[in-house]
Amino acid sequence: MPATVDQIFVICKHWLLGFAPAGVQPIFSALLSVVPILVVFPLLFAITTVLERKGLGRIQNRYGPNRVGPCGFFQPIADGIKSLTKEDVVPATADRVAHFLAPLLLVAAAFLAYAVLPIGRNMVVANLNAGVLFFFAVGSMVELAVFMAGWASRSKYSLLGAMRAIAQMISYEVPLVLASVVVIMAAGSLSTVAIVNAQVGYTGIWPHWFVFTPWGFAGFVLFMIAATAESNRSPFDLPEGESEIIAGYYIEYSGFKFALFFLGEYLGMFATSGMAITLFLGGWAAPFSFLTWIPSYVWFFAKLLTLIAGFIWIRGTLPRLRMDQLMSFAWKFMLPMTLLNIFAAGVWHFMPAGYARWLACIALVVAPFLLLGRGLQQEKKSGIRSYRFAE
Amino acid sequence: MLGEGILKGLAETARNFLGSYVSKDRLTTVQFPEERLPHIEAARSFPFLVYDGEDWQQGMRCVSCLICEKECPPKCIFIEKSKDKKPDATGKPQFYPVVFNIDVSVCMSCQICVEVCPFDAIKMDVEFELSTNDRFGGLLWDKERLAKSNAYYGKIHPTEAAAVDAQLAEERAKLEAKAKLAAEAKTATVATPPAQPLRETSETTEGSGA
Amino acid sequence: MTVSFFILAALTIAGTVAAMSLRNLVHCVLALTLGFAGLAALYLQLGAQFVGFTQILVYVGAVAILAMFAIMMTQRAGAVAQPVFTPSRMPGWIAGGMIASAVFAVLAWAIHSSAALPKTLPPQALPSQADAGVRAIGNALMHRFVLPLEIMGLLLTAALIGAVLVAMQEQQEMP
Ligand code: SF4
Ligand code: SF4
Fold first, then answer.
1. Is the ipTM of this complex over 0.90?
2. Which of C65, C78, C131 lies closest to A147 in CB terms?
3. Distance between CA B185 and CA B179 in Å, rounded?
């Protein structure tokens, strides 16, 4: 019985597929896989916006939205109606085509990333051999969309925002990918499905998630930091720092296009969280062996919501970084840490199982963390700033 | 250690988050339309025109001197001065504004008009729920919309109004005394019955009594 | 298969032609990106997932952005370049076209006569190769081609260090 509940969506899909004539079956099958994703994740976006606002409110000792519907939970509907009915203003000098295409490209890229996320047992749109690579490739398309938005608006604020966004995304893409390399090494595959399958087993009641190893834990933390920066969320939200460049690259967008940017940003955040779950938190696997009767997709979404709550918590806590802090953090801390983490994963792989392996790996992760951390903190003295201009 | 401060901060925000569900006094927000904070005396929103007595048209203190119109920084006051004079609340014939408009969508609540008015005719209101669905006409307030009684002024800014009332009364008393002296001097020298007294209304007698 | 191939090929060619002929340089780069993406899709269609995704990651994600930055740093954004098709430029176009077709001919001849390409592909060969693609590339890079890979890595690292040195020197010259 649990198996049926677990596979209910897969069974439904096959049952529905039975009605389609043989000729259109591949297309129909793809539709049946894609449409739920197109429905579920925007819904999750709507729920997240209101949860985020309420959570941030509570963190700041306020109520948050509580007027529309019960406890304010219909707020996203009101917001949606508002953004749909708002005037769509395009700046007179804007590059209309690029200005129009940028939000679409952003959302399309964000949605594409879900193709390789296994959200349940046997529930993945496309089980690609190079799934992880696909994920990062699609993620890099976001940069192009951001650049198009910033450049096409012909506004200095948007251009500055886009520059910042791209500098930040390129810098943090390196640690993001390097942090996930350890998992690829351990699982021996680039396929997301294979990576999850490598984490499904249990020792006693404890799961075999990669996060429960020294390199996995470090990798997870580094991955999440880089993911926060990739999705332009606080404390790495310089590209949209409203106190300096108002809203960054999407300042010239209004109405529904603005909503699309918002959607794209959140979808990107969910996708990277989903990737973190797939890589480090065992994907759809239950956290204890006696909980496996709960369907796999429930576990995936539970983990996803937990990570989102973490994102909100971080956003409510930390102030925004400065550009030089951001960059030196990326290149002087994240990059060496991820490289050393890869080394630690290698050591883990080649040492025989036992306490010695644990100790060696923990030492390999913690010692550079302490040293690099000290190095970063000693840099606090700020001297005279020198400005350099492009000739 | 790197990250220590972040953990401390996270603990603090978590305490805020959970605490806001446990103790109500953490949440300082006032749920506005249902609950209201007590009115603050020094609050101000937009100017209004003070009138004495019951009839707003007759009792309006403004004498259309146009000083506020000139001084208003964003130039949101528009006054049309009357050609004739009408008796004011004290019975003295005065000019009066035929049109007195303030565009509150432009007004920046700077209170300069209040400071410069020599007749204490314009004061700051405290009303702030002013939304309207007519974005132009609804925010251009005319004389009638602006006129509010001195009693209302006394209610919203008691201390300030008391001071203004006292000062006005004093001025009137002085005038009264001067007029009396002048009258007496006249009677003494010319020994003829005095001409029309300058002021003779209930208001003046009240003033001299005080 | 053939239909999608022709659509993708048309897309790629349209992108690259637009990249040459559009007047606004930023538009050119965007069109070039379209060409890159079309190329990546062609790779994917051939079952070369790794190459296809790397193409997107490197070309769409990095090279296009780099080109944009280069254009924006050197030229005022929005400045309109001169028209591309003018009678006076015709000799240049003809010469360029001739060189391009010569290069294409040489490449085509080289590939066609290469021993690496089996003359007749068994129809079932493609999918099975695709499944092993990533692993095969990894094995090839780590065993047979490990030396070229390392040398290339060293070269790139040296270039990186060189760039950092150049940048640092410039900063020291600043008063
Ligand atoms: S408060 Fe200031 S802005 Fe408003 S009417 Fe008076 S002088 Fe003008
Ligand atoms: S409100 Fe005061 S300053 Fe303004 S016109 Fe009337 S009397 Fe003069």
1. no
2. C65
3. 10
